[in-house]
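User: Can you recover a sequence for this backbone? Please restate the input before giving your answer.

Assistant: Of course. Working from this structure:
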């Protein structure tokens, strides 16, 4: 994976016959620490170091996130015996991510990516310790609080994709985003396999109750991710890109202003809607799938394999999806996302709870749907705005995405309790259909407005007033 960094990070330069000729640039406004250590910057080298650093932090953060999240509903159900409260506890991850997304973006817009990422990972570690406390004391109130703070780590992991794109050339943005997202395959995939089979028994060996070991290891890994970011993310990519204001120039936007920019831009509206649908369908179905399988008598090993397969779908092919989004356009990839969402939800929904292959296959397809949707939409949102507005707009977009995911996660418990797992997946399929229709409507509207042919699917930024 690291070998691909150089190929994807030829930025700020001319490329001839496959060779990258580096441009030395005067550094834009820097924070005090960065200003003291750099004068002229080799932007290609900065981008390569940035991506490598984010790959490492994503792996640690991914393991920490999934190690805890994969046992959240199980621990909540064990404490309370309520699927509704189990769904609420799991949905707290999205609630925390939604609440944190924009404040983290404001920190980044003012001070750079490093302070924002560092803050997020530290808060996630604290949340993991709260979850351990919930398992020890059998007090449910500590669990949603802790998982909400772990959700801050989820928002932080998601923000790394934009940090990777800060210095990427427009035609390589989605590819670079995909490369960093792929690092989560190693982190989250490994975490899903070992959370119940290794981390949980590890905790019990030291006298901790069931599921506490998974959260404890997650806390330590979030701290490791924070250390990687603090030590290696220098200079800060957003600072180098010119997206951070000086002492007398604040580039931060209030949420209302950032949301207004999104609503006024048709490409941005579609991008945020695509992220919302991708996140909601993934969160809603995955929140209750472990319990659904458990009700069918399936083992913890089967549940771990399902989670691993789902995560592979979300992350493993993200570099390929990024390349496709760069070469074929963002709109076709969003259509693919919607179609996969419908197919995966129907496959999983119509499978009985004891049906391992159908549920695992459907959830894997839903993972692919999330991958296509989030990567294409992230590239589209980044394309739509100049660098000084991106951090705030990206934070607002992620806040909308996470908030919709939280609503879907909370609703999932109630839907399954009062209706069925099938009805939950039918609702997810309807969201996939809505995404396809939204893409087609947006493309048709832009064509009628005179933007025909490849411009509708272009990756070159076109900023709308």
């Amino acid at each position: 994976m690291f070998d691909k960094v150089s190929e994807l990070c030829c930025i700020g330069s001319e490329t001839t016959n496959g060779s990258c000729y580096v441009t030395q640039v005067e550094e834009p406004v820097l924070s005090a620490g960065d200003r003291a250590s750099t004068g002229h910057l080799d932007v290609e080298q900065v981008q390569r170091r940035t991506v490598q650093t984010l790959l490492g932090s994503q792996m640690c953060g991914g393991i920490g996130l999934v190690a805890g999240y994969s046992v959240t509903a199980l621990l909540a159900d064990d404490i309370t015996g309520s699927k509704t409260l189990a769904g609420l506890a799991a949905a707290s991850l999205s609630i925390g991510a939604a609440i944190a997304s924009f404040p983290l973006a404001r920190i980044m817009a003012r001070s750079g990516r490093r302070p924002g990422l560092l803050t997020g990972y530290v808060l996630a570690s604290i949340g993991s310790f709260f979850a351990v406390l919930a398992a020890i004391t059998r007090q449910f109130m500590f669990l949603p609080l802790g998982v909400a703070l772990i959700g801050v780590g989820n928002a932080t992991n998601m923000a790394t994709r934009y940090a990777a794109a800060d210095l990427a050339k427009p035609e390589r943005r989605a590819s670079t985003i995909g490369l960093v997202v792929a690092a989560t395959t190693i982190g989250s995939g490994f975490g899903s396999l070992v959370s119940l089979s290794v981390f949980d028994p590890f905790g019990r060996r030291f006298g901790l109750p069931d599921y506490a070991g998974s959260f404890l290891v997650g806390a330590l890994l979030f701290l490791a991710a924070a250390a990687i970011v603090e030590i290696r993310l220098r200079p800060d990519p957003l600072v180098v890109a010119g997206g951070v204001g000086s002492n007398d120039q604040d580039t931060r936007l209030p949420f209302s202003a950032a949301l207004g920019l999104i609503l006024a831009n048709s490409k941005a509206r579609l991008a945020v809607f695509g992220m919302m649908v991708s996140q909601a369908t993934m969160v809603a179905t995955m929140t209750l799938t472990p319990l659904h399988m458990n009700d069918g008598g399936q083992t913890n090993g089967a549940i771990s394999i399902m989670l691993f397969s789902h995560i592979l779908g979300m992350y493993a092919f993200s570099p390929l999806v990024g390349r496709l989004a760069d070469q074929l356009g963002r709109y076709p990839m969003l259509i693919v996302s919607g179609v996969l969402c419908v197919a995966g939800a129907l496959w999983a929904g119509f499978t009985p709870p004891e049906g391992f292959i159908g549920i695992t296959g459907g959830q894997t397809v839903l993972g692919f749907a999330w991958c296509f949707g989030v990567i294409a939409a992230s590239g589209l949102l980044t394309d739509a705005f100049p660098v000084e507005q991106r951090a705030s707009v990206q934070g607002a977009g992620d806040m909308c995405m996470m908030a919709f995911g939280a609503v879907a996660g909370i609703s999932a418990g109630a839907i399954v309790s009062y209706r069925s797992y099938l009805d939950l997946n039918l609702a997810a399929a309807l969201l996939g259909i809505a995404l396809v229709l939204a893409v087609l409507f947006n493309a048709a509207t832009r064509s009628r407005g005179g933007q025909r042919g490849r411009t509708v699917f272009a990756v070159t930024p076109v900023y709308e007033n």
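That completes the design. The longest strand covers residues 13-16.
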